[in-house]
């Protein structure tokens, strides 16, 4: 177990479960102090108690990042406590399952605010401090969805395409600053994402054995971020799927994804 001797912090959104939780654990093991962010106050407090066993400082902050204004207030809270953030992990994200014509447009807009607006706000705010310090690392949770049209999850796939493009763009802008930006691109992973997206009837999630372990995905993202890489597709199967998609038309890929993601009871 690492003992932290540094003063800097890693901030992880979506830290109470799934990939975000595993990333927080890895960062704690590496000796970073942590700022863990989630919607549920009890869950972030419980996580802080757990992670403090790693002999690090852990600051729990409850914020609902579906409201973009809370991204600004999160930054203000961190600054008011004089906590220097060296690593920013934008993990918080959500989807909504169903044909776009049938989904709740207000919920879709909230997902855009969470997956895009809050991520952009936090990146912009903490980037200013990283530039002043001359160092920093940003890990953004993209997805292989960023490379694939996504029938039954059209808005989610669109938001992840934004995250990947945005990450690659600012990485180039920052190449001479000492700050790196990495995009993590997992595929279907064994997290609570599918429950929250009301997606349990999708063909894509019927076999738990085919889902990636979030700990393995987090390790891929952590290693890529620490090495300063631009992006990483987690898992051989996902690498092959993206590679094959590059060889055929988007129309063909969209049809293939429709077949993979439609409900099990739909012929």
TrEMBL record:
Cross-referenced Gene3D superfamilies? NAD(P)-binding Rossmann-like Domain
Q: Which domain of life is it from?
A: Bacteria
Report whether Repeat shows up as a keyword of the record.
Answer: no
Q: Which InterPro entries match?
A: NAD(P)-bd_dom_sf, SDR_fam
List UniProt keywords, sorted A-Z.
Oxidoreductase
Give the matching PANTHER family: ALCOHOL DEHYDROGENASE
Concerning its family, UniProt says:
Belongs to the short-chain dehydrogenases/reductases (SDR) family.
According to UniProt, the name of this protein is: SDR family oxidoreductase
Lineage of the organism: Bacteria, Pseudomonadati, Bacteroidota, Cytophagia, Cytophagales
């Amino acid at each position: 177990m690492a003992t932290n001797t540094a003063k800097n912090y890693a901030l992880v959104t979506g830290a109470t479960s799934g990939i975000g939780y595993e990333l927080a654990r890895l960062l704690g093991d590496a000796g970073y102090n942590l700022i863990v962010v989630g919607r549920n106050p009890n869950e972030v407090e419980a996580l802080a108690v757990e992670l403090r066993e790693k002999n690090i400082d852990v600051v729990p902050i409850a914020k609902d990042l579906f409201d973009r204004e809370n991204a600004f207030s999160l930054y203000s809270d961190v600054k008011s406590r004089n906590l220097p953030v060296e690593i920013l992990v934008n993990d918080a994200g959500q989807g909504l399952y169903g044909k776009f014509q049938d989904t709740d447009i207000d919920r879709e807009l909230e997902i855009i605010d969470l997956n895009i607006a809050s991520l952009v706000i936090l990146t912009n705010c903490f980037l200013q401090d990283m530039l002043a310090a001359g160092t920093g690392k940003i890990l953004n949770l993209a997805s292989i969805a960023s490379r694939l049209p996504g029938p039954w999850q059209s808005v989610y796939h669109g938001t992840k395409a934004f995250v990947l493009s945005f990450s690659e763009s600012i990485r180039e802008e920052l190449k001479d600053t000492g700050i790196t930006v990495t995009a993590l691109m997992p595929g279907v992973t064994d997290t609570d994402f599918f429950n929250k997206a009301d997606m349990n009837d999708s063909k894509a999630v019927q076999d738990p054995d085919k889902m990636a372990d979030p700990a393995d995905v987090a390790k891929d993202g952590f290693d890529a971020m620490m090495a300063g890489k631009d992006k990483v597709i987690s898992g051989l199967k996902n690498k092959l799927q993206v590679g094959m998609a590059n060889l055929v038309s988007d129309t063909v890929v969209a049809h293939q994804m429709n077949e993979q993601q439609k409900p099990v009871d739909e012929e």
